[in-house]
Design a protein that fits this description.
heterodimer, A: two-stranded antiparallel ribbon, 10% strand, extended, B: mainly alpha, two-stranded antiparallel sheet, 2 strands
């Protein structure tokens, strides 16, 4: 009796958690889709709607961020004074500090060409499309879990796809986005002012490997489930 | 997990049921397991059998485990 009620409680809890996860995934998917629509209809791609501030930022003027390749003068904002206690910050009296690079700035294109718009659109669309694909896979897994049978070969396949999407896709995205930014910057009037460097994070690769590990464990789960089902 | 090795266990449920004039449904009712599961066992598609199931089957069929399952060459 107590086992049955514990099992029912567990199922209810699992169902509630599944509903919450499904809700979050649907909201995420809708946000990614909205971002794609806003980019495509914005003034820098199709020009169907006027640009302006939206939940993802402002797209009134087309722009990319990059590191500048020259020293930034911060003026006398952090000027120092010599006191009896040694060098101190002039404004606060605290021990002195210094600002330094790398400094990232926004490069805005007031009248972008067709090719600049195309490169910018590809750059902007890559991330939401990648996120949407990942969320779609997660949503399918969550839905199958809610149906009560998560340990299936198709879910294992989805996990492998998610691992590749996160590990390889997100790493490739960083490389491609860096390359596209470089293309935009190097073809602009401010080309000489930017550093030709790109930063790659290994976090997606680590997350991808963790998901791949989960997929391998999932396979064991499927085998165990098959064994239990075939036990009379 | 290591690759699965095909087994050579044969379940003689058909012969025992015929000898005792029982149907699969009657046996399922008496043993308390589903006809589907008994069918899986009868057709050698089961991967394992619980001692409790084996005990119940042997009691109802009045036989030894060796009468129920045999190793095929």
């Amino acid at each position: 009796m107590s086992n049955t009620s514990a099992s029912t409680r567990r199922q209810t809890h699992s169902s509630r958690l599944g509903s919450i996860l499904e809700g979050i995934a649907i909201v995420g998917l809708a946000a990614a889709a909205l971002q794609v629509v806003l980019i495509l209809t914005g003034p820098n791609v199709l020009g169907i709607r006027p640009g302006g501030a939206n939940i993802f930022g402002s797209d009134e003027v087309m722009g990319v961020r990059g590191e500048v390749d020259f020293p930034i003068d911060f003026g006398d904002r952090l000027s120092r004074v010599e006191t009896e206690d040694g060098t101190r910050d002039a404004a606060t009296g605290q021990p002195p500090v210094e600002l330094g690079g790398p400094v990232e700035v926004q490069l805005s294109f007031w009248d972008p060409t067709e090719s600049q718009r195309t490169i910018w659109a590809i750059d902007q669309l890559l991330a939401p499309l990648l996120v949407a694909a990942g969320i779609w896979l997660v949503l399918q897994i969550v839905r199958s879990t809610r149906r009560g049978d998560p340990f299936t070969a198709i879910n294992e396949q989805r996990l492998w796809s998610l691992a590749v999407l996160v590990g390889v896709g997100a790493t490739a995205y960083q490389l491609i986005a860096g390359f596209l930014h470089m293309l935009l910057i190097q073809r602009s009037a401010a080309a000489d002012m930017f550093a030709t460097t790109a930063t790659i994070s290994f976090l997606p690769l680590i997350f991808g490997l963790l998901i791949a590990l989960l997929a391998a464990v999932w396979r064991i789960g499927i085998d165990l489930r098959d064994d239990v089902e075939a036990t009379i | 997990m290591p690759p699965e090795i095909p087994h050579r266990i044969h379940c003689r449920l058909d012969e025992l049921l015929e000898q005792r004039g029982l149907s699969l449904t009657e046996l399922a009712d008496e043993v308390g397991i589903t006809v589907v599961n008994l069918s899986v066992l009868k057709n050698d598609r089961a991967k394992a059998i619980r001692f409790s199931t084996l005990t119940a089957l042997c009691e109802v069929l009045d036989c030894e485990p060796g009468d129920l399952i045999t190793l095929t060459p």
